[in-house]
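Aim 2, interim progress: modelling of the 4EZ-bound target.
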Amino acid sequence: MKIAIMGAMREEIDPILATVGEYSTTEYAGNIFYECSYAGHECVIAYSKIGKVFSAITASVMIERFGATHLLFSGVAGGISKELKIGDLIMASELCQHDVDIVAFGHPYGFIPEGSVMIETDGNLRSLASEVAVDMGIELYEGIIATGDQFVASSERKEWIAKTFNADALEMEGASVACVCHNFGIPFFVLRAISDSADGSADIDFDTFLQSSAQVSATFILEMVKRLGD
Ligand code: 4EZ
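Predicted structure of the complex, ligand included:
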């Protein structure tokens, strides 16, 4: 077992690197990959940079070059569901790409021929997360996460994503990482702590809560790593 832990932004993996202690560093394909042993597990950690393309590169490299057998994504997201407040945690049940549009040919939004609108996360990792949440006394939401190459900061766009995909949160990397892991046959998990509500105040809220929400997600992910393979 080798565990990949990834985020999109430096702020999303900084709390993880600060906790794992000693690591070695490798530069490859435009990223820095940090390898360490944590809680008896070999880990590779990286942030991809923002968006679907960079995150797909990083996930692919973690699997193909670094031999990751499991992938955990940690980061922040814009909340859609009214239940989700800033700082709350959501794990993805399924993920979709809200910006894929070939509806001109009669396909549904988010669909690419020979693919599927939704990609499901690993059930065992979700069960583990539910146990961790109970033991930590933390509320963990589960729902659909919609991904696209857009920072959503308007109620109109948010509502469209909500009704089109029944999504509970949105961000810019989850579905591309899901697509990579699904195609390589690697079990994966996507966790996000809410930083904003993807509305008119999303930019200000994001800047205000990026660090604190990234920390919430990172702490939870590391607790999961401790219990993996038990
Ligand atoms: C993308 N990430 C934000 C990147 C922000 C600023 C330089 C998460 C996220 C997000 N993505 C938090 N809130 C979001 C929102 N409202 N729309 C899209 O994964 C880049």
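The CA atoms of residues 8 and 48 lie 5 Å apart. The domain at 2-227 is CATH 3.40.50.1580 (Rossmann fold).
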